[in-house]
Amino acid sequence: MSLASGSLCVLLITIPSFPSSFGGEIWISAQHPALFHLLSHSHLLHIKSTTTSAKMLSKSLLFLASAALALGTPVERTVSCRAPMPDPSLPLTGGAAELPPPPAGLELKVIALGLGIQNYSCASVGADAVSTGALAMFYDISLLYPESGPNSLTIEKFNQLPAFALNHHAIPLHFNDSTVGRVEVASPGASLKRPFTRAAALDLGEEYGKLPFLGHHFFNTDGAPTFILRRGSFNVVAAKKASVPAPGSADPGPMGTGAVAWLALDAANSKGATFVYRVETAGGNSHGCSKAAGQDSTSYAAQYWFYGPKS
Ligand SMILES: *[C@@H]1O[C@H](CO)[C@@H](O)[C@H](O)[C@H]1NC(C)=O
Ligand SMILES: *[C@@H]1O[C@H](CO)[C@@H](O)[C@H](O)[C@H]1NC(C)=O
Fold first, then answer.
1. Which of 25, 54, 177, 210 lies 20 to 30 Å from 12, alpha-carbon distance?
2. Burial of 289 (0-12, 13-18, 19+ CB in 10 A)
3. What is the pTM assigned to this prediction?
4. Hey, where are the domains in the chain?
5. 192 in ligand 1 pocket by Cβ < 6 Å?
């Protein structure tokens, strides 16, 4: 299933003689068979749900419509479809170098927001900080991409999502209060026992709404970036293939350390996706090693684009 192919249709059912909350729109997106949206005319009822409950909702709406018809109440139905939207295109840094395009034969599977920490180690004062991995919670932002459904955003707003989340929401990890061996006491590391918080939506308030939980990002015991999404239906173990600096305009993060590089990651033999990009990064660069030797962590956010074989 491609995220980008197929047209988007809207079925509008209106029962003029009923209170406005009985009218509604069902969004049927060919590119997301799982996407059904019911929007009441009054906008009091705004439900964005999983396939099953949305199907039930659309069924009950059709039931209401047929009940109204049986009573001789007029029902208006309009279906409008528009042309397939162009494939979502990977953001560009606009700099001298860009990441390589996705390998041929792959399609976009999901776009995620990652919100977490980048970990570093300082061997001694004045040394170069060495990256020791990352931990992040992932949220599904595919349907916020422009023209992907009723809640989709402008491209500008979509691309500002990582910086907004980083600056307006706490990092959804369990932190370790200990300052022992920390380079920057104000930037704790994650709990080693239980780093991830509850698998719940990320509530970004009126600005962006609630982003559905998607999964986890961590480094496995071999030190490889790993992504477990949708309860393991994506099990992606990756290796860095290419890296380009984040644009100068990227959000430097709450401590002003700068945005981590954009990456292309190869994940051959993985489940669900075989190529991953980290783009639109905010924060995450190390605090440096001028203060102390030890472990360091910096909060960051980014968009992750997952590509896999066409299905
Ligand atoms: C840093 O990240 C690595 C890789 O995911 C993780 O194994 C480790 O527990 C993290 N350490 C801290 C202190 O956050
Ligand atoms: C917290 O950090 C201290 C110091 O590094 C470590 O000894 C302890 O095991 C950590 N606790 C947890 C729960 O991660």
1. 210
2. buried
3. 0.79
4. 8-82, 106-309
5. yes
